[in-house]
Amino acid sequence: MNVFVAGAGYVGLELCRQLAQAGHRAWAARRHPPALPEGVTPWPCDLTDPELVVPEGVTHLAFTASPDSSDPASYERTYVTALERTLAAFDRASAKGGTTLERVLLVSSTSVFASPPPTPTSASPVSPSDDDVITVDETSPVRTDGTAAHIVAGESRVLSRGGVVLRLAGIYGPTRTRMIRMVKDGTARISPDRPIGNRIHRDDCAGAIAHLLAHPSPEPIYVGVDHAPVELAEVYRFLAEALGLPPPATSDEPDARARDAAIRGGTARKRCVHTKLLASGYTFRFPTYREGYAPLLRSPE
Description:
Layout: E1 2-6, H1 10-21, E2 25-30, E3 40-44, E4 60-63, H2 72-95, E5 103-109, E6 134-136, H3 146-160, E7 164-168, E8 170-172, H4 178-185, E9 189-190, E10 196-197, E11 199-201, H5 202-214, E12 221-224, E13 230-231, H6 232-243, E14 249-250, H7 256-263, E15 270-272, H8 275-279, H9 289-298
Parallel strand pairs: 1-2, 1-4, 2-3, 4-5, 5-7, 6-15, 7-12, 8-11, 9-14
Antiparallel strand pairs: 10-13
């Protein structure tokens, strides 16, 4: 494969590394590409440039760009403007006799899922229980408000071209160790709303993208999450025990993600499932947070 990685950031650079290691050719597209491994070509550019130029010979496009901030305008720049101009650049190249893309893959987010709260019943307990968990997969409804509206617009653009969408859960990895820091500095708290953390290691994000780029007949949409979407309290306790620290204290304050979900009329007790990704033949490097956090816990500060 000859892969143009549009937005070679945290996930995209690792994707470039894995592609090169597997013998593929990759271009790392970003404003200021860093030092790159052998087999990866830097492609300095602004993906929002209306006159964006792309290299010849590209067969696969992986759009892995991420917003600069959490405001909706930043999401629109990424998932609408930058995506459309990147696709337009390849369309122009194709019209001039360049190689037509064999596959387009968009890295999306599980934040698009609506995940409404469960329907209350007379038997429902007041406090969260296992019965309150919402299971989310590729067929679940999506939100159309805020940042999700722009992500879904980008997904629709790619799907209309016969492309693939990979909705990634929360990404952690070598430089994203916030939960470890919170346990170490004592700011981690066990909240009463029992939010569920859906996560995936950065290396598996890149691995799943490379896998789906090469897949002979992929599904349109996949959920990228590891084998263990569990309550955040379980992860905090695991980290504390591994670090030889007491478990985090309990708190009466709602968890931030639970509060944000409630504002949208939803729930933070959402468990994403990855049945389609597993069925596609992908094998996880870090199946759960236990394997994923282990090397991070051994790393020096």
